[in-house]
């Protein structure tokens, strides 16, 4: 039974399927980019179903196979900051983070279908629930250093849990993962063929979720040993670059090239944030750190410049301030960890 008005927004559809409450993101023209309207619509549904004894399980997915959620609506956020200032942007994104934490702490189990693109805010919506499903169409990433901020939406918690220094490398570079890699890296739990998703939706009403997912899931091999971990085992990013130069491999060369394109200040903040996240005890602690960092970074020019270069003018030629890693003031990086 469809409950069209429960969310209060056309971007969030809901459906009751027996004991399962289905929440569907429905903003396909924007690849389901999450804005405050969508987040608050999800929150209204969660609140309504929290006390509903007939709903025992939630299913969170998308109406489009192209994307679960491509991230935050960065163009709208940058427009807001240009008109009303960074404080308005910080207030809005903080509320969106709160809904992500509400999902993560929900009292009833949630299955998220991270089919298609799931990046940034998409990880925040679907990456912190008990059952996370990906397919061969899935593309996951935390690409924030390319737009002048730092991994957020709880993504730095997942990156910090990865073995060795592989999470640090992903945090810095924002590389994309396919479905199998997402399972290997702890961003998802089950890899299913996309053609099995209709069967999953149909059978989830009557079958125990762990048994159903185990029956439909494809095996995922263990992750290969990271080849560049030794390069990232360094006291700072300057030494990382020296290590990559000395390594001389094609993979190392590609990392050097990628790092040269990303926001220098964001890279330095992300370096410090990842190491601090390794010491944090809970997802909520990590959200608190991320919220503080993003609040500071939205007061800097790099965020608006990154969105301009990536999403508005699409020239992919951002003019970062400062333009190099060695020009970043470490005292300014340290201040980003102080609450606003």
Keywords:
single chain, 340 residues, alpha/beta, 2-enoyl-CoA Hydratase, Chain A, domain 1, 2 domains, 6-stranded mixed β-sheet, 3-stranded parallel β-sheet, 16 helices, globular
Structure notes:
The strands form 2 sheets. Strands 1-2-3-5-7-9 form a 6-stranded mixed β-sheet, with helices on both faces. A 3-stranded parallel β-sheet has the order 4-6-8. The protein has 16 helices and 9 strands. By secondary structure, the protein is α/β, with parallel strands linked by helices. The protein has 2 domains: about 160 residues, 2-enoyl-CoA Hydratase, Chain A, domain 1 (Alpha-Beta Complex); about 110 residues, no CATH class. The model has no long low-confidence stretch (mean pLDDT about 95). It holds the Pfam family ECH_2. It catalyses: 3-hydroxy-2-methylpropanoyl-CoA + H2O = 3-hydroxy-2-methylpropanoate + CoA + H(+). Keywords: Hydrolase.
Topology overview:
Layout lengths: L11 E6 L2 E6 L10 H15 L6 E6 L4 E3 L4 H11 L1 H19 L5 E4 L3 E3 L1 H6 L4 E4 L4 E3 L13 H7 L4 H8 L5 H6 L5 E2 L5 H7 L5 H8 L12 H4 L4 H11 L2 H12 L2 H14 L5 H15 L3 H12 L17 H6 L5
Parallel strand pairs: 2-3, 3-5, 4-6, 5-7, 6-8, 7-9
Antiparallel strand pairs: 1-2
Helix pairs in contact: 1-3, 2-3, 2-15, 3-14, 5-6, 5-13, 6-13, 11-12, 13-14
Total number of helices: 16
Label the structural class.
Answer: alpha/beta
**Rg computed from alpha carbons, rounded to a whole number of angstroms:** 20 Å
Tell me the count of domains: 2
What percentage of amino acids are in beta strands?
Answer: 5-15%
Q: pLDDT below 50 for ≥5 consecutive residues: which ranges? A: none
Largest beta-sheet characterization: 6 strands, mixed
* CA(first)-CA(last) distance: 45 Å
Any idea what the CATH superfamily of the largest domain is called?
A: 2-enoyl-CoA Hydratase, Chain A, domain 1
> Which percent bin holds the helix content?
40-55%
DSSP strand count: 9
CATH architecture of the largest domain: Alpha-Beta Complex
CATH topology of the largest domain: 2-enoyl-CoA Hydratase, Chain A, domain 1
- CATH first level of the largest domain: Alpha Beta
Rounded mean pLDDT is: 96
3D shape: globular
- What sequence of helices (H) and strands (E) makes up the elements? EEHEEHHEEHEEHHHEHHHHHHHHH
Domain Enoyl-CoA hydratase/isomerase: 20-337
Organism: Acetobacter malorum
Keywords: Hydrolase
Protein name: 3-hydroxyisobutyryl-CoA hydrolase
